[in-house]
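Handout, tutorial session.
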Amino acid sequence: MDAQPGDFIRLWHGGSGHSVILVRWVVLDGRKVGIEYRGTQGSTDGIGNRTEFLSGAPGHEVGDFVVERTYAGRLNL
């Protein structure tokens, strides 16, 4: 939950996952409810942005990704 735009993110959807770059947190009523990320995958037709939501976000009782298996890293130069 401490990840910042530009951080590398590894997220999982059950048995599969993606390595992406965080574009922004989706915030609703002051609460982080999802992430917009940039990555390469079929659903973005190559390189593109996608938004996925956390469990409990409005309309997403079950989250789009497993937050307990989501990891962030930052390149410090």
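The second record follows below. Compare its token runs with those of the first.
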Amino acid sequence: MARMTLQDVARTAGVSLATVDRVLNGRPGVNADTAARVRAVMQSLNYRPDRAAMRLARGTGHRFCFVLPKGNNAFMLALHREVLDAGRRFAADRVDVDVLEVDVFDGEVLADALHLLAGRVDGVATVALDHPSVRHAIDELTLSGVSVVTLVSDVPNASRTHYVGIDNVAAGRTAGSLLGRFVGGRKGKVGLIAGSLALRDHIERQMGFEQVLGRDFPELDVLPVREGRDEDEQVERLVAGLLSAHDDLVGVYNAGAGTGGLIAALEASGRGGEVVVIAHELTPASRRHLLRGTIDAVINQNPGHEVRSAIRVLLAAREGMPIITGQEQIRIDVFIRENVPALADGAAQGG
């Protein structure tokens, strides 16, 4: 069936194109009965507006900014690349996408960066710290008319439009189940590394992980969580300390980044392959160690899907369109050595 156009709606409703445009965009100047008739015709014809064409016709567009962490976190660098790629794709639709890198581990620094975006952009997608100043900055952006999406890590008590990311409690539960099964009935200690306990995604992963181990694997003793700030050097020091202090360490779950440091500590101790390792994000380094057997499983979220989803959600918010929930649900992928996708495999690219 051919796509219905504004002209089809106007002809069927017996009104002008200008009247249909006013009804479509909620502008005044149309009689209530006429507006109701136009909306009824839109529904009967299953009319769906081509928003990109409308932006081009009117010479209007949207400005979106992604606020991402500074540093060498491989997953965040992949996210950055996906933003730049999406920006090139959406440019033809008059959607301008930019990136701002800040220290998201510092709540005041992140909040200041968000405050500076007020009046300069139409939408913001931010990797967010669950911090009072960050919540306030998101609320103020929203009040100023800027649509805000939280990305990867949520701030649910702020007035953000939507959260784009995986269910992190479920990811932590998955990690706990995998580690317990891979340990294979041995008794011992389990190390838990987070980037920061101010990042909600890491807190939720910790909660899910500890819940499953406490319930299903009581023979495993989870050690107090350590914060590695997603830095290889810091994580390496923490894991080296765990290995030195606990001869019975049988597993490590790294809920954040810095997996390269974890592997370096294991290999330096000669216990690589002996200690079960569950990590996050399929990066070049984690892929290599998964294939070598130093990492037992990787829990992954697709950065391309997340970026495209964030842009679609921001566009829907700006243009009064509904969010397609199924399309914007970010799935949890689990990779072991036997199912690592090929480097050029597009099947893992998501929506």
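Points raised in discussion: The domain at 168-300 is CATH 3.40.50.2300 (Rossmann fold).
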